[in-house]
Amino acid sequence: MIDFQAIIEGISNNLQSVYDRGDVATYIPELAKADKNKFGIHLIDSSNNNFSSGDSEEAFSIQSISKVLSLAQAFGKVGDQLWKRVGVEPSGDPFNHLSLLEMENGIPRNPLINAGALVVCDVLISHFDNPKDDFLSYVRRISNEPEIYYDEKVAQSEKRSGFNNYAAAYLLKSYGNLKNDVETVLDFYFHQCSLTMSCRQLAKLFYIFMNKGKCLQGQAYLSINQVKRINAIMLTCGFYDEAGEFAFEVGLPGKSGVGGGIVALLPNKFCVVTWSPGLNPKGNSKLGMLALEQLTSKTGLSIF
Ligand code: GLN
Hints:
three-stranded antiparallel sheet
């Protein structure tokens, strides 16, 4: 039996002495307030045993991690039709790059870069009467955490500064790959990204991707095949132009966000979440990457 608690505490201790913690994201002004001395980790195994250390109960902005959740809701709703409007190839580009979008006629490379996530939002808006409410209750139901909320300040902060996302949305619109209007799609997207929760809450939420599509209460949200596809997309596209590095160092499917969170999972075994707001130059949490490398190296558990 692996002693996850001892391993996680060991990792937390090791990381305390790391001097260079990266830089907090400032392009969304509200995120610049985060304290880069924070570090939290929570691991949940397939039998619902929970292990944590550090600031694992503190709520943070999950940002791009939310793209996996909107993808799950849209894929669950419309099935394989989704792939007519968004691809499944890694971009090898930063999350907000627009050049490929133009070269590939408005079909984003994958649903985890910003342009792809905007198309996914558009699909949800077309299928739900109250997409923001429906998305929030989807997230609350899966995690069984009714307290999860949108941080309105973060959403408004990004609305005021998210010019690159406006550019992506208008470009998609010009190619006919947004059915709803740009403001509506961006409003949904900025709210989705502003979801705020702790490492523990996020681990409960991502349990479905580790557990063949079923939440902790046993309800199925995705088929086994759909989970396979979403995990494949996380592995190849979850860290933008650092997806290769994450697979090489950590060896798990996962997803990062500029709020400093990272979720990673080993199918049928465990789901782990780290949070530390200091980012490396590629926009991924500096300490989070180090922590997860140590976790899979010390336990010998990875998909490889
Ligand atoms: N809301 C952020 C953006 O669109 C999400 C980016 C991220 O977490 N990588 O820029």
